[in-house]
Amino acid sequence: MDDATSHPHLHPHLHRPHTFELPRVRALLLHAAPRFIEGVIAPVAVFYAAFAVLGLTGGMIAAVAWVYGGIAWRRLRGHPVSATLLIAAVGVTVRAALGVVTHSAVIYFLQPTLGTLLMAVVFLASVPLGRPLAQKLATEMVPMPEAFLKHARVRRFFLRISLLWSFVLFANALVSLWMLFHQSVGTYVWARTGLVVGIGAVGVVVSVWGFRRLLRHVNARPVPA
Q1: Can you spell out the DSSP letters for 162-217?
Q2: Phi, psi for residue 16 in degrees, rounded to 5
Q3: How far is residue 89's CA from residue 47's CA, in Å, rounded to a whole number?
Q4: pTM above the 0.85 mark?
Q5: pLDDT in tens, 123-166
Q6: Cβ-contact 91, 115 below 8 angstroms
Q7: R_g over Cα of the chain
Q8: Contact 189, 105 (CB under 8 A)
Q9: How far is residue 177's CA from residue 13's CA, in Å, rounded to a whole number?
Q10: CA separation (Å) from 64 to 68, 98, 101, 131?
Q11: Gap between the Cα atoms of 94 and 114, Å rounded
């Protein structure tokens, strides 16, 4: 059975090739939650659990082992590797390499920022390559019809959103760098979190608003006979 028939609640209006509607929030959350937990929550939880017992080096090694073990497990079972998990792999690799070499508190807090900078570059590079990372992430969270994704306006939207998120991540990284070198560690930990979440929230709001606007435009166009 193909994905479209096995998950009809995630693929409404497939009989109209260029239309697409957002699924219900509950269906969206059920589909996206496992990927978010696997690629975002679990690596952080594994790191802090190992860090409490084994120290910085042990925490880094445990996080790397979790992420790359998950990738290997998916490959062995013939399942696709999610973009969220690939992003986690990039982040933990950078953090582990610097953490193991330096054992510096400043470098330790610098690592997530370097990972953010790297992801900003990846988002930015995906635009001229014509393979927007925002589209890959979005389709993992909300499966979309292939014909909808081939629509010229949809392609332009995901290119622009990838560019937007490269700027969001660059802004997060610059704020983090400034606070790390100009504020106390305590201030950095608490204030940076709020600022980064705030900047990210703006990106999310703009992305969702733009996508809903895109859907209204694409779905309103008559389907050629």
Answers
A1: HHHHHHHHHHHHHHHHHHHHHS-HHHHHHHHHHHHHHHHHHHHHHHHHHHHHHHHH
A2: -110, 110
A3: 13
A4: no
A5: 999 999 988 999 888 887 777 778 888 888 889 999 999 999 99
A6: yes
A7: 20
A8: no
A9: 46
A10: 6, 13, 15, 27
A11: 7
